[in-house]
Design a protein that fits this description.
Layout (H helix, E strand, L loop, with lengths): L2 E7 L2 E6 L2 H19 L5 H32 L4 E7 L2 E6 L6 H31 L4 H21 L7 H14 L2 H28 L3 H32 L3 H4 L1 E2 L4 E2 L4 H9 L6 E5 L5 E6 H4 L12 H4 L1 E2 L4 E3 L5 H9 L6 E4 L7 E5 L1 H15 L1 E3 L1
Parallel strand pairs: 2-3, 6-7, 10-11
Antiparallel strand pairs: 1-2, 3-4, 4-13, 5-12, 7-8, 8-9, 11-12
Helix pairs in contact: 1-2, 1-4, 2-3, 2-4, 3-4, 3-5, 5-6, 6-7
The structure holds zinc ion.
Zinc ion binds next to helix 2.
Length: 380
């Protein structure tokens, strides 16, 4: 997207896409052409100035909607990449998923509730201004802002991705099924049905003679259809990661280091000229007794390297995370998240019980990055 950063609000990077100019113009035009009906008798320029002001305040309302999503996401521990305003309003890009359906629900529903609250504020303001005998053009702008925000709040609650209602539905299904993947697929399907309904309504309006409104509905339906399909594909990709086993990412038959050599010798003979940063340490009979890694070695003073044996420096087997080739990688990641050493020894689950592989930080970092890429979400 061609977006321009406009700075940070409440700590979030806010960006604007050039297509905002289209809605700015549409809103200005729409307000400037309805105002003369509500508040007649002003010069034409007054309507246009009021139109521009109203449209800018509306953009501010859209921003407030998005920032509410962003604040609640941050509170739930979800990273917010940025907030962008564009043709269809705003998008808050998240770096992951909420941990519980309750948090997901709050993040999603907060935006439409903000729009509805803003609608109430402008409704009351318009009513108050009218009662106080303020200029009718001001009352007209306030009522218009109340109406549009009310529509935006309700429209965003429609249950289809990427609308907030789609997220709300997903959170509800997540709580009901206890499975975010199944909930995501379910919500995406409902989104597709909604898209077809909008397209059908649009075609109906078009045939009945309401050309602009009809085309707009078809366009919107098509947009929701595409987004729902993308959403379902994304959920399925993420689901695919749940089926990745440790065996698929581990380094099989890792180089081992004997426990009875000195650290000095280990560095010279094994570490230098090898790409591995962690080695299972073996006893004389070949059984694995621990793990030695760069992070462990860093804790040994250079002067003590000739006096320390690898078996003394190594992490004992009892302190090392172990896994089996058929454990799911996501399950291992969750177990490792709490540990300081982000690697695990892979122990044969059926045969000898010997070490058959090692999962290192670099294997996992790559996987985590791919995982985050597939799991990144967006909110409207
Ligand atoms: Zn929203």
């Amino acid at each position: 997207m061609d977006t321009i950063p406009i700075g940070r609000i409440a700590g979030f990077a806010v960006r604007i896409n050039w297509s905002v100019l289209v809605i700015l113009w549409l809103f200005t035009w729409s307000l400037a052409s309805t105002l003369p009906g509500a508040a007649p008798g002003y010069p034409q320029t007054a309507y246009w100035v009021a139109g521009i002001c109203g449209a800018l305040i509306l953009l501010g309302s859209l921003l407030a909607h998005e920032l509410t999503h962003a604040v609640l996401a941050r509170r739930a521990g979800v990273t917010v990449s940025d907030v962008t305003l564009w043709l269809f309003g705003g998008v808050t890009r998240l770096g992951g998923d909420a941990k519980t359906p309750k948090e997901a629900f709050r993040i999603a529903v907060s935006g439409p509730l903000t729009s509805l609250a803003i609608a109430v504020v402008f409704g009351v303001t318009g009513y108050g201004l009218g009662a106080l005998g303020a200029a009718p053009i001001l009352v007209g702008v306030a009522s218009w802002l109340a109406g549009i925000n009310l529509m935006l709040g309700l429209f965003n609650l429609l249950p289809g991705a990427p609308l907030d209602g789609g997220r709300v539905l997903r959170a509800y299904l997540w709580r009901r099924y206890g499975d975010p993947v199944r909930a995501g697929v379910g919500a995406a399907r409902v989104g597709r049905v909604l898209a077809f309904v909008l397209i059908a309504l649009g075609l109906g309006e078009f045939l009945a003679g309401a050309t602009v409104g009809g085309v707009w509905l078809v366009f919107l339906g098509w947009f929701i259809f595409a987004a729902s399909r993308e959403e379902e594909a994304q959920v399925r990709t993420q689901h695919a990661f749940d089926t990745v086993r440790v065996a698929d990412v581990m380094t099989a038959h890792p180089h081992t280091a004997p426990g009875d050599i000195t650290v000095e010798e280990f560095i010279a003979r094994y570490l230098l000229g090898d790409r591995h940063s962690a080695y299972p340490v073996t006893d004389r009979d070949g059984s694995v007794i621990g793990l030695i890694s760069l992070s462990v070695l860093r804790r040994i003073a250079p002067g003590r390297r000739t006096a320390t044996l690898v078996r003394e420096a190594a992490m004992p087997l009892s302190a090392v995370t172990t896994t089996t080739p058929d454990e799911s990688v996501t399950a291992l990641l969750q177990r490792l998240a709490a540990k300081s050493e982000h690697r695990a020894l892979v122990v044969d689950s059926v045969g000898s019980g010997g070490v058959v592989g090692i999962v290192t930080a670099s294997d996992l970092t790559r996987l985590i990055e791919v995982y985050q890429l597939a799991g990144a979400g967006q909110l409207g």
